[in-house]
Amino acid sequence: MTIRDLPQGEEIRQIRESVRKLCESFPPEYWREVDRNRAYPTEFVQALSGAGYLSVLIPEEYGGAGLPLPAAAAILEEVQHAGANGAACHAQMYIMGALLRHGNEQQKRKYLPGIASGELRLQAFGVTEPTSGTDTTSIKTFARREGDHYVVNGQKVWTSRAEHSDLMLLLARTTPKEEAARRTDGMSVFIVDMREALKAGMTIKPIRTMMNHSTTEVFFDNVRVPVENLIGEEGRGFRYILSGMNAERILIAAECVGDAKWFIEKASAYANTRNVFGRPIGQNQGVQFPIARAYAQMRAAELMVHHAASLFESGQDCGEQANMAKMLAAEASWAAAEACVQTHGGFAFAEEYDVERKFRETRLYQVAPISTNLILTYLAEPVLGMPRSY
Description:
alpha+beta; 390 residues; Butyryl-CoA Dehydrogenase, subunit A, domain 3; 4-stranded mixed beta sheet; 4-stranded antiparallel beta sheet; Butyryl-Coa Dehydrogenase, subunit A, domain 1; Butyryl-CoA Dehydrogenase, subunit A, domain 2
């Protein structure tokens, strides 16, 4: 049984088919080995880059395909649907938004062609810090202007793929919080060339987590960043980061839909072939119903993802829809994961079935890149007009 795709046009249908074929070259054994060794799927990322899938949002004049966000969402959904793990490279799609929307022409010419060709990896996103968490306005990493450079000191945490990236998009304070007119003022965004920074004050420390997410802490000790690497205006970085978060939410939601499809197909196939007490376990409604409910949740989330992506692409405000898409899709993938584990019973915990790996991977999206509680707060307050809770 293969879940049918919702209609999205011939171009996206062809993209989906091509991504599926590419993923077939990386069978479950490949992903088990990568996961077992806590390795980075270099060959897979190179294949996606070589096929142009990671550069679809980059305009053609800079070497990309210049496709809309729904195309990027379809790519990441298919990667997850195939049982692969797009977390190794998905950030490149939404991190580039800050450079595309707010970078100057010189910066675009310098970096985008290399990113589009795969020569450069822009995978690291330095925002979260140990003492601030999701309270981004309280970050302490500071960039002090000294002549034609900024000198950066501080620490970032949960910075995924830092060890496998050439460039980092860094958010740092350039004005102390207590001196800023508003708490969202005084932060700036920089492109950090990590190849140079690692030679002069940057340190990366891996964090071992329950899933293979290439997560790290990054320390800055008088790291010098050229002034020309400042994106946009000094002090307006928080706004630049926010402008890319809707795309991030939508793309992560698309991945969760792909995960949910994988779990549902896996559970359905096993329910049809596993015989206990002389009949398939899928004949029992106690097995059927959780899978069927997860399918309904997935389809509802899928529609919200498509709706949010459509609004984003047309330039309309889609904060509400992007956040709902992320929350609903993460919940759908988790419900599908639970149903898949229950259907497989003890075999779900065996590495060879791949369920336990995907189970760990999809659990992350209840928490990152934004927790469900913060999405609910957003819906309750600015959307529904309830009083601020913080």
